[in-house]
Each structure stands twice: as C-alpha cells, then as structure tokens.
Amino acid sequence: MARLFYPAAWRSDMVEDLFGFPVSDPYRWLEDGDDARVRNWAAAQDRLFRACRDGWREKRSWASLLDQMSSFGVSESPMARGQVMFLAEQLRGDEQRRLLVVDAQGNRRVLVDPVQVDPSGHTGLYAWWPSREGERVAVQMEVAEQPGSDILVLDVRTGETVDGPLPRARNTSLAWLPGGDAFYYVSRVADEELAPGDKRLQRRVRLHRIGSPWQADAVVFGGDDAPDHYYGLTVSADGRHLAITATAGPASQNDVYAAELVDPEAPRFVKIVDGAAIRARVLPRFLADNDLLLVTDYQAPCGRVCVARRHDADPAAWRTLVAEDPQAPLDECLVLDDPALPRALLLVARTRHGASDLTLHDLASGRPLTGLPLPGAGVVSSLRTNNRHGRHAWFSYCDATTPPTIYRYDAGSGKTELETGATIAGRTPEIRSRSVRYPAGDGTEITLFLFTPAEEHQGPRPTLLYGYGSFGMPMRPWFFPMAAAWVEAGGTYAVACVRGGGEEGQHWHDAGRGPHKHRAISDFNDAATWLIETGRTTPDQLAIFGQSGGGLLVTAAATQRPDLYAAVIAEGPLCDMVRYEHFGLGCTWTEEFGTASQPEQLQWLLAYSPYHNITPGASYPAFLLTGAVTDLQTGEAHVTKMCAALQHATSGDRPILMRREPDTAHAAFPASKERALAADILAFAGQYTGLSPEKTTTRSRETAAEPH
What is the pTM of this model? Predict the structure, then answer.
C-alpha cells in the first residue's frame, strides 16, 4: 500500500507553559475555521478523502446493505393527551421525522412535516410538548448548524400556529399548566446581554402565556450564579406546584427546588435537595396528592424509588418505595393511577445483565406484584402513559435483530400488545447475540456484547468494536443498522461496557471519569486484547468506532496501543483535552473530564489526551476522523488538529483521513446524509479489515410492516 501525500500543514513551534508543564500545540492555528489558510487546507483534505473513497472496494454494496438493514416507521413511544395521541414517524425516503396525531377513532394526520418548512431537509423536528388537554402542542424545530431553535405553538385541530416563535430555546424543558394557556420553558439569555465570547449556557426558566410577546415572559428561576446549569421542569397534575431540577453541566448530582404556584409568575422556591451535600442525582415527579416520587441514586448507586413530602429537605425522611437492586440498575419508572384500576401501580424498568426487566409494583407500598413479559432479552425505553390517571403504558422495545417496536400495556386487562399503527419495516439478519465478561488489567470484570452471524464459524472474523464510556451513559444491546449490516456481511460487532458509562450504576460512572478516565481507555484496550487472545479476531481484522465521547475513547485507545488495531473511526470526537473547554459546550463538561485550569487536573488530561499523546514515527492504524464543519457541541477543531498531527507523525502507509460534512450538526443529520456517513464508515472499516458485503452468508428475515 503506497503512502499518501498529505496536504501540507504548517507545524508551529508553539509550546505553552501551563503550571510548569511544557505543552506543545503545533496546530493551534487550525482552531480558526474562518482563516483562509485553514479553509484551504481543509478543502485539500476534502479532496484527498474523496479520492481515497473512490478507491474503496464495494462502497455501493455497503450502502445498499445498510439501506436494507434500516428500519422505518415509529420508533419512539407516543404521547397520549386528552383524546389525541402524538407520535413521530419517519418512512423510507423521508429526510426527517414528521409529527402525526391520531384521534380517538384511529384517524392519522400529519401535523408537522419539517420538509414542508425546509425542502433541503436540514431542518428537523427536535421536540414537541402537547398540552394536557391535547388541544395545543409546543413544537421545536432545529436547523442543524444554528446555535438555537425557536418554539412554535400549534392548534392541534387546525395545524395553525397560534403563538411564537419563542427564541433561544435550545435543549429546553417545557411544562404546561392546566388549560393550555401557559407553560414554563427554558431559554438562553440574549447574546447582546452577555460578555463577548461567553459560550456558557446562561439559561433562565420563564413563564409564557399564549398570545403574549415573548419579551414579556417572566423569569421565574436561574441567574448569573449558575451559568452552566441545565433545568428540568415538572408541574403537578392540578397545576398548583412546580418542581425544578438544576444540574451543572453533565454533573452526576443535581439540586431540586419546589414551589407552590400561588402566583405562577413569582413562585417562591424551597430547595428540597442539595445535590452538593448528598452527591446524588434526584429526579422528582408529583403524585396525585402532590407528594413527590423521587428516583435517586442517593445511598443506592444502582437507583431506588422513594416518596417524600413536598418541602421535606431531609433525605433521612424519604420513604423507600422500591429498594435498590445492586445487580440491576434502575432505568425509569411510571405511575399508572387510573381510578378504574383496583390499585394505583408503579411500572419499573431495570437492566439486568444488559437486558431490560419490567416489573409492576403497588404504588402505595412498593410491593412487587408481577413481571411483564417482553418479546425477548432486549432493551425497553421511552416509557410513557396518559398525562394523568394513566391506564396504558407505552414502551419501545428492540434487540440485536428487532428494530425499535412500540408496545402498549393495559393495566386493566394485564395484556401487552403491539401498538396499532406503529409501523416498522425492514430486513434484519439472523444475529447471534450474547453477553460475555472479560477481565480488565486490574481484574475488574467488564461486560462485552458480541453480535455474530448465526452460523458457526471457526477462526477469527473481521470485527468492529464500539465503545463510549462517558457521562454515565450505559451501553445496551440495541438494534443498530450499521451493526446489523456488519454482521450480515459476516463480521463480528462488539460493544465494550467500559467504566465511565452507566451499565453498573453510578459507581461504574465514577470509576471512569475525572482522575479515573484512564480506566475507561485501558478497559477498551483490554477488550481488544481479549478479542484477539481468544481467537475471535486479529489486529489486522480489528477496527474500532466511537462517537463524540466514544470518539475520545477510541482515539485515546489507538494512540496508546496502535499495534492492536487495523482501523480507527472517530465521529465528532474530543481529541485535544487540554483545550476542549474552549470549543463548543466543552466548558460545561469539566465535572466529567476535569479542567486544564488546575495543575492536578491538567495532569489527568495530559496523560490520555489523544492529540498530546501522538508519537512521531509510530506506525498508526488507518484513521477516519469525521465531523460537521460547524459542530456546536464538541467543536470542529478536534478533528482538524488530530488529523494534521497524525498525518505528520505516522510512519505507516495506512491512510489518515478527515471526512467533513457541511450543513449538519454534531449528531443531527438529514436521513440521507446519515446513511451516507454510515456507508462510508462501513466501507472504510471493511477496506482495512478485509470484510466484504458481497460474500454475505447469513440468512435474513423480513420484518413486515404493520397496517396503519
């Protein structure tokens, strides 16, 4: 394989002295995306990528196979409000999902179609919040490369806009008051009111009344003392109480405030949970009597469910309703309290050994009543019920061979059935899915999900190893079209549940963040070593793939052990961990990774920062670094700087490539661009591990579409 000639990148001699540590940063100049030198260099990298892609074998075959594996229809549970059900649908050929409404007679109607708003497909349906009565819905559309999005309020019957737009509501929470004439929401302070270059969240909770100008919306919570806080909002069923969760960035603890809404524009809040004091996460919701149901990991790393009085600030007074199960982390729970039911119920979802477990409990006592049968050993998500006095529970189920499918549980009859009209169509391979445990270097047992063709096969296979390991996000055996296509072609797809994720509860997250982030990286390299030593793959057949925080994981793993891998794919990664706080939302993530502004934490970051641990003259695997031209979350400089540094350093002949995507965001593509990226990733991984989609031997099955 001939060594590529890479576009020339000026390498400066810039070295910063940070607390006595000399930190080299030869590609600092690439951080300025508006600089003509940067634009010209990036354009040359684009041309190089396209030229290399033209030489990849079977790219079209991968694209075709991926399209066959993709599922279409409704993958997220509906919201039932009043006599109307709201659901999002995306069919084959749709660039974006559409918001549909289904009336009591089962008639379906498209309420919002983003492509009618923006035919280019770059505007997506981000979120929607129906009023309690189902007569109005607040809708948030988002343009991929823009930093904020507006809220519009629609009349559900006519589809007409009745209010808005309300600006700067990116990543908002929203809670309607009864009657559908007002709601609380979260919006960012206007740029002109901030200091120049302030990239912090700077958000406020506001009350909006339908028909009033947004400029008149009263600020009810938030201030300059909490520049990086996220807020979650919930209003009691009778509209008399408001609870707010306040979390600094992605911190693993939060505060909770509650207020009686005597005056909705000036609620008087009482701090009922001090997250810093108890160092725990607490998620509240109001019960029918306006007491609070609390889902928390306080004194329970795998989660428990408690009941508390509204203004009881002493955690010792909380009554445990459903105790922690150390072997099954708590995912979510749902109250079913229709007056027609013999008793009010609590539906609890846990994950046991990677598979979901649903159990029913008596709401008053917490006593377990029964387990709900599931279609298989898969993943349940998106538990939802009617707005108040629920009888039905909807959930999404998937596993390695089953695309997300919507089920409805009727607490009155005890039956679980497919939701009518929740369409799924596609072709999926017969995949053998199993969970194994491998030893980390310190002896800790780590879970590894393995997805292989159903046919027995002796000897190693081309393998694609995935991981994340940040922010307490758990890995599950989800259905993933890219994984299904890889297995259909005869490869092994593996997912390593490394520390830093949430697979084993909060202690698992704590064990791989901050000063312990190195453990997540070594766990991932240990997974690769185990796959090789057990004969499942070889270094020449092993590719690794990570997205965002997972991009950090795989680039760090590969700079530490380049000998283990044939190819590395990092999508929207973090690579420069000394300066990540200067890009995108990085300044809000110091609780997870640490900050370079403190000497001890700078040492943590320097120890694994991929950009700073590239070794000149090392023979690196093939690298594909992908990202949006405008990435408002991680920032695009991670990709450019890492690409330039690797191209300069590598002594090998495997390519170091950068794939940039204009008019998209960190993780929000039009469907056609998302599939094109996935096809490129599969073609790249197949090219350098030897996997061919045209040698497919697995048997596939059709997943039939359910009639509307």
Answer: 0.91
